Amino acid sequence: MTRSSAQFTQPAGVSSASPLLVVTAVVLGLAGLVLAAAGAWLIALGGSWYYLVAGLGLIASAWLLKRGGGIGLLVYAAVVLLTLVWSLWEVGFDWWPLAARGDVFFVLGLFLLSPWVARALARRDATGIGPTRAVLGGVLAAFLVAAVVSWTREPGRIEGIAPLPDASSNATSNAAAHPPPPTDEWTAYGGTGFGQRYSALDQITPANVGQLEEAWHFRTGDVRGQPGDPEETTFEVTPLKIGERLFLCTPHQSVVALDATTGAQLWRYTPEIKRPLALQHLTCRGLSYHAGSAAQPPAPSPAPSPSPAPAGDCSAKLFMPTADGRVLALNPENGKPCMAFGNGTGQIDLWKNMPNVNPGSYYSTSPVVVTRSLLIVGGTVLDNVSTKEASGVIRAFDVNTGALVWNWDSGNPDDTAPIAPDRTYSANSPNSWSISSVDEALGLVYVPTGNQPPDQWGGKRTEGAERYSSSVVALDLASGRVRWNFQTVHHDLWDYDVPSQPSLIDLRVGSETIPALVQPTKQGELFVLDRRNGQPIVPVTERPAPQGAAAGDRTAPTQPVSGLSFDPPALTPADMWGGTVFDQLACRIAFHRLRYEGRYTPPSTQGSLIYPGNFGVFNWGGLAVDPQRQIAFATPTSLAFVSKLVPRADDTTPYVQGKNRPNDSLPALNENFGAPFAVKLSAFTSVFGLPCQAPPWGHVAAADLRTGQVVWKHKNGTVRDSSPLPLPFAMGVPNLGGPVMTAGGVAFLSGTLDQFVRGYDVGNGKELWRSRLPAGGQATPMTYRGSDGRQYVVVAAGGHGSLGTRTGDHVIAYALPKP
Fold first, then answer.
1. CB within 8 Å of 739: residues ≥ 6 apart
2. What's the CA gap between 638 and 733, in Å, rounded?
3. DSSP E strands: which ranges in 531-595?
4. Which residue in 24, 103, 388, 809 has a CA-CA distance of 20 to 30 Å to 577?
5. DSSP per residue, 366-430
6. Residue 49, phi then psi, degrees to nearest 5
7. What distance in Å separates the CA atoms of residue 598 and residue 136, rounded to the nearest whole number?
8. Which residues are designated catalytic?
9. Which residues, at least 6 apart from 147, have a Cβ–Cβ distance to it below 8 Å?
10. Based on C-alpha coordinates, what's the Rg of the chain?
């Protein structure tokens, strides 16, 4: 017998415990102590008993292993079996929640089965190792089988086939003098003023989309990180395509014209910033285009007649909103300012007649609406800085001269005549920072609105703010007066402002064709309304909401809920997640410590869980709608946030800025000077920075807009670019940026947190193609036909500051190979 064999069969009790067993026992014991102590805390909060029991089991296993007894393996096997049974009871065969509960136990179990541990135990207990190892091995095998089964399942997935195209819808739309879906060109942010993000091009199909290749790649030279940039500096642009040119803007306000077929730069214009900036956001989502009076069709309904375009000065115009509160008019031919616009200045000053003029507290991040005779402008008012901010007024200007035609101010909604030079608009009124839509045939512009700041406390909101905040407001093009208003949230305390452009589509409901408006919201509703009068087409009901707002405030008794909703199910303790059982337990403790009564739980000084959070189920990217299939392609996201009110003793002291207080003129965000509470806002994450709720956090889905049914829904995207390890697994990640659909039956999306642009089969949602991007693609793609006859898909990839995606300055076009 060799020396090693003699050691292996040495009777138990002859030697002291090996160093390996000591270290193993210490690790198990410490893990058990953490689970037991935190588990006892969780029980005191009303939570699960599992963690305390599992912790005590680990402590017992550690003690027995330290003594050299194989029975310690048996106790550990019991802990693993308990974990498996409890996990399946809580979450079923769902891989990621199952993995968070069992990964540590499984890895430690494999180590305990290793030859090194077996030899160390056998030196002290030669008779009891085999059977106990077999039991532990069997339990681990059962856990592995459950994991394999769960890997093949996707709870919440909806399989289905979208309706086939019906060409009669186009005929109906054209007969009603509505803009036809774009083909060669892309003349507005959403394709047309209807905001459908749909193209009638059909060259790219599910059969050939996999052949797409990069056609050209342009670098703007504009990147984040310049002096004075706010954190949320983003490249969110969707280019326009007019004639043979693309037009786009950059975060730092440059306007660039490219050859649409080659990507070569034709001209660039960078305006001088005339005022100091104190921005929450620095971006430019897009430009707007006016073809000139000669190219415009007659007005289909009463509307202001445009002033004649000055001879020789910009018959056609590009309009760009700036970060310092102006709208510039540029000549699309050469990028030079149209000097006859704006009384010889080539611009409109949006600060005119504004109250509370503070640098950077008012500006426009979204393209303006352009009609035959008007350009209609909204703007961003700073969130959660103070109760003395600029006005959220909506203004219409003459498209040729820049003269003010009307103004709609929710604080004075019935007086829309141009304001007198010596007056100011209503301070602190709800604004419209997103993109509006227009139906010139009906003579209406549809404006999505936000809230009167502060967002999380509304005890002193005005009557106009209460009526028009978080709404879709239909304004008469001729007069600016309200024709109808649909409120998506009553007395909004959650920053659920209407974030995205309404999409206009004619729906065939039974034997009737109804001009419809589809409005996605941050809370997940798709309100499908008759755009003539705001009446619901898909039913809307009022449901009771949680009560008990903070001191001095109130809570609306009910909230509107659409029959077509992507509102995620209410969170439960079982939904808590993490990379391991330890941070998953910490998330459960945090969940129980927060106030949470489902959607619309009011913000509180205790801290309230807001789900979905103000990131939104939907944000500014909105939807794509197909007028032929009568469906919407949606990208719902589900992330929880925490909102905690901090009582203020005065109107000047910073309460929530901490050590990172703003420098110079940057705004003190979330201080709410003038209100009784500041607010702490944060994502609901674990100690490792992972979301406390289990994935998936992002999907792609299709909804039938006539019936209100979700046709298909699949998780979408990976954590490859947002985790310490480049995991390629399809967990379903958040998306910020919109989709585009085509008549060829393919949809495109680039806004997921991983750096890919993807193509999907519109019929069933299957991902058919992806291409790696050099930076985050938080923008909405667009498509057009080039001079070579090929269909191009263009994506801006420059990243998003507050999301932490990789920055860049890329504009990339894809096309099928040349014949």
1. 197, 621, 623, 624, 633, 634, 635, 700, 747, 748, 749, 780, 781
2. 9
3. 540-544, 558-562
4. 24
5. SPPEE-SSEEEE--EE-SSSBS------EEEEETTT--EEEEE-TTSTT--SPPPTT--PPTT--
6. -85, -10
7. 41
8. 495
9. 95, 98, 99, 102
10. 30
Does the pLDDT at position 172 exceed 60? no
pLDDT-derived band at 616 (thresholds 50, 70, 90) equals: very high
Per-residue b/e over 181-213, b at no fewer than 16 CB within 10 Å? bbbbbbbbbbbbbbbbbbbbbebbebeebeebe
The answer to whether 607 touches 595, Cβ cutoff 8 Å, is: yes
Q: What sign for the dihedral angle of Cα 436, 440, 441, 444?
A: positive
* DSSP letter, residue 496: -
Over the stretch 508-518, which tens digit does the pLDDT of each residue have? Answer: 998 899 999 99
At position 184, the amino acid (one-letter code) is: D
Burial of residue 817 (number of CB atoms within 10 Å: 0-12, 13-18, 19+): exposed
Tokens in use for 408? 């709609």
Q: For 549-575, what is each residue's pLDDT tens digit?
A: 999 999 999 999 999 999 999 999 999
Token pair in block for residue 184: 């060669």
Span 369-385, average pLDDT: 94
Please tell me the pTM assigned to this model.
Answer: 0.93
* Residues 233, 231: Cα–Cα separation, whole Å: 6
Check residues 9 and 500 and name the one with the higher pLDDT.
Answer: 500
How far is the C-alpha of 502 from the C-alpha of 151, rounded, in Å?
Answer: 38
Distances 159 to 700, 713, 729, 763 between C-alpha atoms, Å: 12, 7, 20, 10
Q: How far is CA 27 from CA 58, 108, 189, 584, in A?
A: 10, 10, 58, 19
Q: Which two tokens mark 26? A: 């210490």
* Residue partners of 543: CB distance under 8 A and separation at least 6: 558, 559, 560, 561
The answer to whether the CB of 649 falls within 8 A of the CB of 525 is: no
Q: Which helix (H) or strand (E) holds 591?
A: helix 581-593
Distance CA 695, CA 730 (A): 10
- What average pLDDT score do residues 470-486 get? 98
Sign of the CA dihedral 432, 487, 619, 160? negative
Look at residue 666 in the predicted model and tell me its pLDDT: 61
332's tokens: 């699309």
405 with 398: CB under 8 angstroms?
yes
Question: Is-contact 445 437, C-beta < 8 A?
Answer: yes
In 3D space, the residue among 412, 439, 604 whose CA is nearest the CA of residue 514 turns out to be 439
pLDDT tens sequence across 709-723 = 999 999 999 999 887
pLDDT digits (tens, 9 = 90+) for 275-303: 667 677 889 999 999 998 645 555 555 66
497: nearest Cα among 455, 553, 535, 544: 455
Q: What is the pLDDT of residues 721-751, one digit of tens each?
A: 887 767 788 899 999 999 999 999 999 999 9
Task: Using the structure block, give the residue that is written with the tokens 């017992």.
Answer: 60
3-state secondary structure of 596: coil
Which tokens belong to 390?
């600029």
Stretch 184-209: mean pLDDT: 97
Checking if the pLDDT of 664 tops 60, the result is no
